[in-house]
């Protein structure tokens, strides 16, 4: 039981701004009830390599994907194009093992710290963020680690 359990879902994250480090918080299910999933029932999830801090990718999770990730330790997303759960690495073998998960201060984004096996990007690159921008031009900053045809057999 925490002092935040009686907070209305629409004010829960605001009330957590005053929480002390180590203070008891509401159950995960209560926090997910208050999380800001969009009109499609999705929340953005940023995957970051747990030991290096490298940002690997951004994908979407629905509540089921997030709960499965927390329960199993194997990262699961929601594929908008396929309209179904997508267990990272199920076709490529390039899995993400969960190290930690955190909601941001507004409850509208999830940060997933992972241990990534091989490339995270469908292009075969370690990170999906390989197109660097400046005010004038863009540049590709990394080579594929693995040919995508070898990952997906296409």
From TrEMBL:
Entry's EC annotation: 3.5.4.19
UniProt domain Phosphoribosyl-AMP cyclohydrolase: residue ranges: 57-130
Residues at which Zn(2+) binds: 105, 121, 128
Alphabetical list of Pfam families matching this protein: PRA-CH (PF01502)
InterPro entries listed in its UniProt record: PRA-CH, PRib_AMP_CycHydrolase_dom, PRib_AMP_CycHydrolase_sf
Location within or outside the cell: Cytoplasm
A GO MF label: phosphoribosyl-AMP cyclohydrolase activity
Reaction it catalyzes: 1-(5-phospho-beta-D-ribosyl)-5'-AMP + H2O = 1-(5-phospho-beta-D-ribosyl)-5-[(5-phospho-beta-D-ribosylamino)methylideneamino]imidazole-4-carboxamide
EC class name: hydrolase
Gene3D superfamilies: Phosphoribosyl-AMP cyclohydrolase (3.10.20.810)
Protein's pathway: Amino-acid biosynthesis; L-histidine biosynthesis; L-histidine from 5-phospho-alpha-D-ribose 1-diphosphate: step 3/9
Keywords (A to Z) from UniProt: Amino-acid biosynthesis, Cytoplasm, Histidine biosynthesis, Hydrolase, Magnesium, Metal-binding, Zinc
SUPFAM superfamilies, sorted: HisI-like
Domain of life: Bacteria
Cofactor note: Binds 1 zinc ion per subunit. Binds 1 Mg(2+) ion per subunit.
Residues annotated to bind Mg(2+): 104, 106, 108
Family membership: Belongs to the PRA-CH family.
Subunit field text: Homodimer.
Record protein name field: Phosphoribosyl-AMP cyclohydrolase
Organism of this sequence: Halomonas dongshanensis
Highest classification ranks of the organism: Bacteria, Pseudomonadati, Pseudomonadota, Gammaproteobacteria, Oceanospirillales
């Amino acid at each position: 039981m925490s002092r935040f359990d009686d907070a209305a879902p629409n004010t829960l994250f605001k009330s957590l701004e005053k929480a002390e480090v180590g203070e008891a918080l509401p159950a995960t299910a209560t926090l997910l009830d208050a999380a800001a999933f969009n009109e499609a029932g999705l929340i953005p999830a940023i995957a970051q390599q747990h030991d290096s801090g490298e940002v690997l990718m951004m994908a979407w999770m629905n509540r089921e994907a997030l709960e499965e990730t927390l329960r199993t330790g194997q990262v699961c997303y929601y594929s908008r194009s396929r309209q179904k759960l997508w267990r990272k690495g199920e076709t490529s073998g390039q899995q993400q093992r969960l190290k930690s998960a955190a909601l941001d201060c507004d409850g509208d984004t999830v940060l997933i710290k992972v241990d990534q096996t091989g490339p995270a990007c469908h292009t075969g690159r370690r990170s999906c963020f390989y197109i660097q921008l400046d005010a004038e031009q863009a540049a590709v900053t990394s080579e594929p680690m693995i040919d995508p045809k070898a990952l997906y057999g296409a």
